[in-house]
């Protein structure tokens, strides 16, 4: 049983780490276009300025990433292992 508990704890840590990295990654992707907004660029994607299309694309990708992360999270996050369970082993 301790092996399954250990792997469950490892999975919880991995999902928490992924949940922490998602917004950090989003910030790193969004900051450069915001900085370059002052420069005039004529790049257009489907009639939308390239910077705006990029920002909305990253925003949509982060929403999809958060949804996928939430759907793949194990049920263990809802009921985490309690420290008292380890004492009974």
Structural account:
This protein is mainly α and 89 residues long. It has one domain (2-78). The protein contains three helices and two strands, in the order H-E-E-H-H. The chain has helices spanning 2-35, 50-72, 83-87, and strands spanning 44-45, 48-49. The protein has a two-stranded antiparallel sheet. Helix 1 runs antiparallel to helix 2. The radius of gyration is 20 Å and the shape is elongated. The model has no long low-confidence stretch (mean pLDDT 76).
Helix proportion: 55-70%
Q: What best-fitting shape do the alpha-carbon axes yield?
A: elongated
Bin the strand percentage: under 5%
Quaternary status: single chain
Estimated radius of gyration: 20 Å
Output the structural class.
mainly alpha
Helix-strand sequence: HEEHH
Query: How many separate structural domains?
Result: 1
The overall pLDDT, averaged over residues, is 76
List the helices and strands and how they pair.
Blueprint: H1 2-35, E1 44-45, E2 48-49, H2 50-72, H3 83-87
Antiparallel strand pairs: 1-2
Helix pairs in contact: 1-2
